[in-house]
Amino acid sequence: MYLIVNLLLSAINIYFYILIISVFMSWVPSIKESAFGQMISRITDPYLDIFRRFIPPIGMIDISPIVAIFTLSLASQGIITLAQYLL
Predict the structure, then answer these.
(1) Cα–Cα distance between 6 and 52 in angstroms, integer?
(2) I need a labelling partner for 62 at 20 to 30 A (CA). Which of 3, 12, 21, 56 fits?
(3) 57: domain range?
(4) What's the whole-model pTM score?
């Protein structure tokens, strides 16, 4: 059970950093259009699109990544709490 929880938390942690990279890449269009940028977008856009449907941009600023990262952090904390309760 510990292995499953650790793998899940590691996957969430890696995805968290990929989301951070995606946010920084959105500030530099030339990086976002590179092969690496397209790969990161393919990984993060399905998750971010969930939040973009409900949270419109404020002016030119898209705050959906902030909410997405916060939600991912809450999920991580929920898994930790649940694992402590069950184990």
Answers:
(1) 29
(2) 12
(3) 2-86
(4) 0.90
Alpha-helical regions (H) of the chain: 2-26, 29-32, 35-54, 64-86
Could you give the CA distance from residue 71 to residue 74 in angstroms, rounded to a whole number?
5
Q: What is the pLDDT of residues 17-31, one digit of tens each?
A: 999 999 999 999 899
CA torsion sign for 49, 51, 57, 62 is negative
66/53 Cα distance (integer angstroms): 14
Number of domains in the chain: 1
Residues 72, 22, 36: CA angle, nearest 5 degrees? 130
In 3-state terms, what secondary structure has residue 56?
coil
Local structure of residue 33 (DSSP, 8 states): T
Please check the confidence at residue 1 and state whether its pLDDT lies above 90.
Answer: no
For residue 44, what are the CA distances in angstroms to 17, 21, 47, 81? 11, 10, 6, 26
Task: Please report the pLDDT score of residue 43 as a whole number.
Answer: 97
Token pair in block for residue 24: 């920084």
